[in-house]
Design a protein that fits this description.
The chain is mainly beta and 393 residues long. The protein is 9% helix and 40% strand.
């Protein structure tokens, strides 16, 4: 299904209640159509790091898809802030006066506090969470290493503060955050076999949680963080299994003649979407998280992989390998699929908190893809051969 058709089915036209029709001191209430933007001005943030932090805030708002940066005379809102020893005091003032849309203090270093300010404004404006304070984990073959060596990295969602988490000198892949963002599950060949590990970002400790004979790959945390779904070949063909997030005995969910892999949980924890080639080329399937009869999803594409369930539970994004590399989205309620990307070489979609944007890999570069407009913005991190990104929710 063409992107233009998807956009024709977007939400109703832009609504900005009068004043952006606000009475003096009334609580601001804003509803915007998802593909439209509100004009916003940013007053220079005061403090030693003010100029750099002002630019961070501008970039955050532009990436949100909800804002257009303009001069103050044309703006519906003006954002201002002051850096403090503990973070940032931020304020979003409507052009017509009245109560600020945001008036709060945000803690942390200057960049993190600014990301939180941007998220608070975007959520007040759109009713959906902002994602500027999210992080990305991904695999990368950077640093002049052989392409058969990929380490696991983490960065802010704008590409800043990238740092290497593993020193395995092996192939690492499929990193996934826990729901609270404090752990990362990933697979590695460091032992000579494909095993699954969990890194605790707070303690910096790593534990092996799946080291069964054969491959142990693609682990994804359940929404409550207690369970991992992953692909195990200990039973023969790679099958979807679950096991405690700290390790333990697996429970087998699928029993097919093909390869089952890449599980992703529904936000309510009741279902798991995964990839299987039991009917020939890889396609998407659903199965109850407790096991049962799988259901094949009709994505209208012949080769679909790497599913990721949206935080709002309404959509599953996936990679389309045929056709040069595109990103598709399957709507759970309508059971219809559409291509949301433009260009080629896109893969490994991961939803952000707003269930609109996706972080993907495109020819080794990370990009932020707007699933409504098809716009892809590069996420610079001074690394190369970046693959399999996953975002915090």
């Amino acid at each position: 299904m063409l992107l233009a058709h998807a956009m024709n089915n977007a939400l109703p036209a832009l609504l900005l209640f009068p004043s952006l029709l606000l009475a003096q001191n009334a609580a601001p209430v804003i509803v915007i159509e998802q593909t439209r933007k509100v004009d916003v001005a940013i007053a220079p943030i005061s403090g030693t790091e003010g100029p750099a932090i002002t630019k961070v805030l501008q970039n955050d708002l532009e990436r949100s898809g909800a804002c257009r940066i303009v001069d103050p005379a044309s703006a519906s809102f003006t954002l201002s802030g002051t850096l403090t020893p503990s973070g940032l005091a931020g304020r979003a003032t409507p052009k017509t006066g009245g109560a600020p849309l945001v008036d709060s203090s945000f803690s942390g270093d200057a960049r993190r506090a600014t990301h939180q300010f941007a998220d608070a404004f975007v959520e007040a404006l759109t009713g959906t969470p902002g994602f500027a304070s999210s992080r990305i984990t991904f695999a990368s073959a950077s640093g002049g290493k052989k392409t058969k060596v990929k380490e696991i990295y983490i960065s802010d969602i704008d590409g800043s503060n990238a740092r290497q988490l593993t020193q395995d000198s092996a192939l690492g892949y499929c990193p996934k955050f826990s729901p609270d963002g404090t752990k990362i599950a990933y697979s590695s060949d460091k032992s000579g076999y494909r095993d699954t590990y969990v890194i605790d970002l707070n303690s910096k400790k790593r534990s092996v949680v799946a080291q069964f004979p054969g491959q142990n790959t693609g682990a994804a945390f359940s929404p409550d963080g207690s369970t991992l779904a992953l692909s195990l070949s200990k039973f023969g063909n790679p099958e979807i299994c679950t096991l405690p997030a700290s390790g333990g005995s697996p429970t087998r969910l699928t029993q097919t003649r093909g390869t089952d892999c890449s599980p992703t949980w529904s936000p309510d924890g009741t279902k798991i979407a995964y990839v299987s080639d039991e009917r020939g080329s890889p396609g998407l399937y659903l199965i109850p998280a407790t096991g049962g009869q799988p259901e094949k999803l009709n994505t209208e594409s012949s080769y679909t992989t790497e599913p990721d369930w949206s935080p709002d539970g309404k959509k599953i994004a996936y990679s389309i390998t045929s056709g040069g590399g595109q990103i598709g989205v399957y709507d759970i309620d309508s059971k219809k699929a559409r291509i949301v990307s433009r260009g080629s070489g896109l893969e490994s979609p991961s939803w952000t908190r707003n269930s609109r944007h996706l972080v993907c890999s495109q020819n080794g570069t990370l990009v932020l893809l707007d699933s409504l407009t098809g716009e892809a913005i590069k996420i610079p991190n001074n690394l190369s051969t970046n693959t399999e990104p996953n975002t915090t929710r």
